[in-house]
Amino acid sequence: MRVVVDLNRCQAYAQCCYAAPDRFVLQGDEILVYDPAPPDRDRAAVERAVQACPVRAIRVEHGDAPAAAGISA
Amino acid sequence: MRNETIVVAGASLAGLRGAEALRQRGFAGRLILVGDEPYLPYDRPPLSKHVLTGEIAPGATTLPGVRGLDAEWRLGTPVSGLDRAGRALLLADGGRLGFDRLLIATGARARPWPNADEARLSGIHTLRGRDDAAALASGLAARPARVLILGAGFIGCEAASSIRALGLPVTVVDPGPAPLARTLGHVVGSFVAGRMQAAGVDYRPGTRVTHLEGDGAGRVRRARLAGGGAIDADLVVVALGAVRNTDWLAGTGLAANAGGVSCDGACRVLDAAGRPEAAIFAAGDVARWPHPLYGGRPVALEHWGNAVAQGAHAARAMLDGPEAAGAYAELPAFWSSQFGLNIKSLGLTEGADAVAIAQGNPRTGRFLAVYGRAGRTLAAVSVNAGRWLPAYEAPIRAAAPFPPITGGADQPALKPVPPGLPAPRAA
Ligand SMILES: Cc1cc2nc3c(=O)[nH]c(=O)nc-3n(C[C@H](O)[C@H](O)[C@H](O)COP(=O)(O)OP(=O)(O)OC[C@H]3O[C@@H](n4cnc5c(N)ncnc54)[C@H](O)[C@@H]3O)c2cc1C
Ligand code: SF4
Predict the structure, then answer these.
(1) Sign of the dihedral defined by the CA atoms of residues A69, B2, B4, B8, in that order
(2) Residues of A contacting chain B (CB within 8 angstroms)
(3) Between β-strands B341-347 and B333-338, what pairing exists: parallel, antiparallel or unpaired?
(4) What is the CATH number of the domain that holds B230?
(5) pLDDT tens-digit map of B193-232
(6) Is there a single domain that holds both residue B121 and residue B187?
(7) CB atoms B67 and A10 under 8 Å
(8) Regarding the domain delimited by A2-70, which CATH topology (the fold level of the hierarchy) does it fall under?
(9) What pTM does this model have?
C-alpha cells in the first residue's frame, strides 16, 4: 500500500491518528508523521483514516506497485 | 488524440501528477515516462525529516498513483537531449523517443560544493534523492564525532533537526543573519534560531566556509572559515540550494538555464525569443513562469504543492488548449517541519517591506506572521498555528491592505516591522 498526505492541506486534526494509530502519529503540536508504506493487513484502518480526515488530505493506493516487468529500463 | 504519444521527461512528482491528470482528462494515447533514477516516482519531503531519523526507510516513499496509470516506464534512463524539429527525446543510451507532446518535469538537483576536488572527499553529502538519503543515513549510523551542515535553508535546517534527534553533535554554518532568512526573513528566522539552539545545534550565522579538508585517506576532517578559524567535522551535509535540471536542453533554442525553463501561464515552454512552443510543456521545480499574483514576475518554486498543481495544469493545457486551461495562478504554498515546529507558508515573501505578528505570539511558540509590501498583503507564515493560515488566503489573493484584518479574536495590536529579508537578487 502507498500513502501520501498533502501536508499543505492537513490541519493536524488527528482524526487519522485515532483511526489508524499505528500508521499516523502527531509529533509535537501539529507535525503529522505517517507510514508511507503500510502493510496490507492495515488496509481497513488506513481506509478509515482516509475517510476520517476532514480536509481529505490523505491519498492511498492499494496493491503492489507495477513490478519490474512493467518497467523497461 | 488516441494515436498520439505524450512523453514525460522526469519521472517524479510533477511528471506523475501530470501523467495522471492526462489520463483523468481522457487521454487514451501512448504515455511514456522517462526518468534517470531507477525508481518509480517517490516522495522527497520525508527524506530530510523522518528518513534521517530512521522512522521511515529511504525506499518506502513510493507515491500512490503509479499503479492504474497505464503508462510505459523508462526508468534508469537519462534524457540527454531534445530534437525539437524532429519532436524526439534523445536518450543517453543512444535511443530516440518520438513524441507528439512533451512534458518537461526534470526538477532540480542539489547544488554541489563548488570545489570539485574537495567535493570528492568521502563523508561529504548532498540531499535530493532516495540514494542520497540512504547514503547519509548510513554515514550517520557510523556515529560521526561532529556533523557540519553548510547552509541554513529548509533542507539544511530540517537535516540539522533530524540529526540532532539522533543525538549527534551538529554545527550549522550560514553566511546569513538567521536560518531560513531568505524565505522567512530575520524576524521569523530568529525564532527558529532559538529553537535550533535549544535543541543543542551549534549555529553559526554570518559565517562562511571557504575550504573543506580531508585526511590522508580522503575522508573529510575539517572546514576552514573565511576570516580564519576552522571546524572539525567528519561528516558534512552540503545544503546550498538547488540547480534546475535543464542541461539537456542546451542548444535547443529554448529559454532554459540553471534557474529553470521559462514557460507561459499555460505551461508552454518559451523559445529564446519568448514565443511559446505549441507541443512542449513544463511543470514542477524545473518550470519558471510569470505569476499573475506577483505582477507577472517569473517565479520558479521548489514546493511539493506546486509540482502537483502545475503538473495537472500542464495536462489540461495540453489536452484542452491554453485558453481553456487559463493562466496558472496557484497560490504558492509549502510546509516544513523541524525542531518540533510545523512551519506553513502561503504566498511569496520576496520583496516584502514589512512583517507583523498577526496572531499568537512567538513567546508562546504559536504564531502567524503576515508579510506586506507597500501597504499590500503578500504572504503569511504560520508556526505551529496552521489552522490560522487558511483565513489569509483571500487577503493574499486580493493583495488586500496590509496588515489584513481577519477578525480573529486573538489578533493582537499589529506592529509591522521590517522583515529582514535579503535584498532581491538581480534576475
Ligand atoms: C529533501 C527534500 C525535502 C523537501 N521537503 C519539502 C517540504 O517539506 N515541503 C515542500 O513543499 N516541498 C519540499 N520539497 C520539495 C519537493 O519535494 C519538490 O518541490 C518536488 O519534488 C518537485 O517535484 P518535481 O517532479 O518537479 O521534481 P523532482 O522531484 O526533482 O523530480 C525530477 C525527476 O527528474 C529526473 N531527471 C532529472 N534530469 C533528468 C534527465 N536528464 N533525464 C531523465 N530524468 C531526469 C530526476 O532524477 C527526478 O527523478 C523537498 C525536497 C527535498 C529534496
Ligand atoms: S486527519 Fe487529516 S487533517 Fe487530521 S492530521 Fe490526519 S491528515 Fe491531517
Answers:
(1) negative
(2) 2-4, 6-8, 10-12, 27-31, 33, 35-37, 59-61, 63-66, 70-73
(3) antiparallel
(4) 3.50.50.60
(5) 999 999 999 999 999 999 999 999 999 999 999 999 999 9
(6) yes
(7) no
(8) Alpha-Beta Plaits (3.30.70)
(9) 0.96
